[in-house]
Amino acid sequence: MIHSEHPSGQRAIPTIELKRYPNLRLLAWQLHQDWMPEDEAFSLYEREWRHVDTANLTADEQALIEHLTACYGQGVMNV
Does this model's pTM top 0.70? Predict the structure, then answer.
């Protein structure tokens, strides 16, 4: 993940490198990009959770989902 700042000095939403997270990469197959803002990733996980292979989540991806849920779902993922 990287953090960047807007020109105004406000902190931008952190982005996620999709290739590091296999399930997220599959969920975002139609997006021809390598990075995604964290808030969009959380929304995508929520919307497409039925397609996530939860039995085979990597430790990194599980940690990412927990982080996103805490930050953008106020501790709850609506699936």
Answer: yes
